[in-house]
């Protein structure tokens, strides 16, 4: 590393802060610069749809304020990287709230950790009052301020975030309808059998689950009021079957898109959308450009079999950050042997260990009407365990997932 430009990290979220912290703890002595578009220091996203939305927590900062100075990490918040020049080893950085105000920043090593942006509902006016997506702390706090007095809410999309938002809104007593075009919630991730058990969880908490039907239109109207582009509010959601669901709050949870626009013209390769999109990387996070890495939700790494794969889960981000920091510093990385993620809905923790596919065979081995445990298998071999309220039983399966275990040994 020649000119002291050091390690520059774009994106001050989980992946960004973990890389910064890990290169420092590995003894890296060059400069470390962490550039984040949001005005906030790095914070954790899982609590946003849970405790923050529930009003039990404010900003879930990942580090205390003094950490950055103590670790000699130059944190630059409210700054958006607008372009990258890999030949010159430099970036153009703009003030997020004053895009004309830019500067050039040089790097020796660049790490891209820009995460995702929520997919907007097609055709909807995103400035409508009452219409929300959930990715940032500001999204969560904005949604939270509208809950008091809301007579009804519609959540569009029953993936993990949609399901969690529905559960948290029910905690306030707001009537909630959860709309999902697939046959069940979470069908794409966990298959329909477990999707049915998740449906039951929501129905038992008085959510009106409308699965197998799409949304035709977000309906708006009402008085013009200051502060919003069109002045209009959402009033209802119209389904493909013609049903109109009244709504004071509409939360759209139909997936997210990797944030890669700032790489236009850089020559840094992106992965094809058919394999998840994002920034194309090798198996240790290296991109097509020299000295440029990518981690986290935006990064599409080659998996153990050499296939491109993009994952949007917390533990995965942490592991990738550890691998990239080790590559940069020449150190050892900590890599979990078994993929893991979780989701909290009502008072139930849903945990997923391993790599389930929606078309795997599912074996439900325990179900008391609320908590359940299921094994997944493919070609007779255990691929994953999914539990709801079954923490110990899920974790006990970890060693069996580290070796090739015939499902017949478990059921
Ligand atoms: C509401 C919610 C709940 C979740 N719950 C769970 C859960 O229960 N379990 C689980 O396993 N996972 C959960 N996740 C997923 C987990 O939080 C993510 O996998 C993780 O936050 C991704 O980290 P990241 O660093 O890749 O991206 P992010 O955390 O999104 O950070 C990226 C940062 O980069 C910034 N940025 C983008 N572009 C630029 C640019 N050009 N210049 C500068 N900065 C830029 C963004 O503003 C953002 O702050 C949840 C996510 C959300 C949104």
What does this structure look like?
The chain has 9 helices and 26 strands. The chain is globular. The protein has helices at residues 14-25, 67-70, 137-147, 160-171, 187-190, 192-204, 314-329, 391-396, 398-402; strands at residues 7-10, 32-35, 73-76, 79-85, 90-95, 98-106, 109-112, 116-118, 131-132, 153-156, 176-180, 208-211, 215-221, 233-239, 244-246, 249-252, 256-258, 279-280, 292-294, 299-302, 308-310, 340-345, 348-354, 361-367, 372-378, 381-388. The protein starts with 6 loop residues before the first strand and ends in a 9-residue tail after the last helix. The chain has a 5-stranded parallel beta sheet. It folds into 3 domains: 7-117 and 256-329, FAD/NAD(P)-binding domain; 120-252, FAD/NAD(P)-binding domain, CATH 3.50.50.60; 347-409, 2-Layer Sandwich (Enolase-like, domain 1). Bound molecules: flavin-adenine dinucleotide. The site of flavin-adenine dinucleotide has 36 residues, from helix 1, strand 4, helix 7 and strand 22.
């Amino acid at each position: 590393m020649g000119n002291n430009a050091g390690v520059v990290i774009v994106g001050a979220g989980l992946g960004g802060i973990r890389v910064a912290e890990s290169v420092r703890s590995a003894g890296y002595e060059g400069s470390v610069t962490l550039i984040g578009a949001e005005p906030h220091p790095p914070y954790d996203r899982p609590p946003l749809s849970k405790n923050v939305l529930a009003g039990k927590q404010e900003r879930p900062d990942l580090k205390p304020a003094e950490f950055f100075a103590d670790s000699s990490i130059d944190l630059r918040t409210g700054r958006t990287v607008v372009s990258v020049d890999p030949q010159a080893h430099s970036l153009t950085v703009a003030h997020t709230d004053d895009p004309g105000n830019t500067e050039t920043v040089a790097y020796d090593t660049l790490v891209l950790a820009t995460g995702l942006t929520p997919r907007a509902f097609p055709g909807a006016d995103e400035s409508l009052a009452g219409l929300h997506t959930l990715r940032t702390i500001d999204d969560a706090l904005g949604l939270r301020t509208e809950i008091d007095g809301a007579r009804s809410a519609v959540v569009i999309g029953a993936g993990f975030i949609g399901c969690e938002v529905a559960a948290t809104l029910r905690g306030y007593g707001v009537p909630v309808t959860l709309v999902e075009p697939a046959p069940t919630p979470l069908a794409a991730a966990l298959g329909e059998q477990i999707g049915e058990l998740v449906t039951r969880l929501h129905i038992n908490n008085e959510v009106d689950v409308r699965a197998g039907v799409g949304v035709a239109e977000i309906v708006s109207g009402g008085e013009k009021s200051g502060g919003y582009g069109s002045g209009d509010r959402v009033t209802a959601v119209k389904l493909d079957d013609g049903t109109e669901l009244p709504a004071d709050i509409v939360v759209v949870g139909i997936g997210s898109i990797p944030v890669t626009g700032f790489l236009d013209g850089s020559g840094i390769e992106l992965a094809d959308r058919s394999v998840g999109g994002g920034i194309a990387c090798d198996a240790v996070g290296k991109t097509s450009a020299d000295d440029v890495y990518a981690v986290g939700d935006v990064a599409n790494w080659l998996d153990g079999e050499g296939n491109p794969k993009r994952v949007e889960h917390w533990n995965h981000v942490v592991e990738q950050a550890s691998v990239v920091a080790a590559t940069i510093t020449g150190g050892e990385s900590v890599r979990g042997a078994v993929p893991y993620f979780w989701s909290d809905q009502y008072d139930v923790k849903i945990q997923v260990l391993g790599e389930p596919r929606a078309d795997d065979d599912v074996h439900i081995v325990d179900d008391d009407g609320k908590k359940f445990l299921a094994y997944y298998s493919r070609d007779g071999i255990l691929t994953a365990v999914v539990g709801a309220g079954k923490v110990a039983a899920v974790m006990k399966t970890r060693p069996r997932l580290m070796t090739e275990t015939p499902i017949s040994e478990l059921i």
